[in-house]
Amino acid sequence: MKTRTIIAIVTILAVTAAGPALAQRSRVGVRNGAGPLVDPATVVVVEGVVEAFTAGAGLGMPELSVRDSADFLHFFVLGPFWYLREAGFAVSVGDTVIVTAYGCTACDTGVAVASVVNTTTGATLTLRDASGVPLWIQGQPGQGSGGQGSGSQGSGGSGQGHTGEGSGNGQGAGGNGSGNGQGNGANGNGNGNGNGNGGNGQGGNGQGGAACPGDGLVPDLTRVATFSGEVETYTLEAASGPATLVLATAEGTVTILLSPVSPLLRAGFEPGSGDALTVVAAPALLGDGEVWLAITLTDQATGLQIVLRDPATGVPVTGARRGR
Question: 296 by DSSP, 3-state: which?
Answer without folding.
Answer: strand
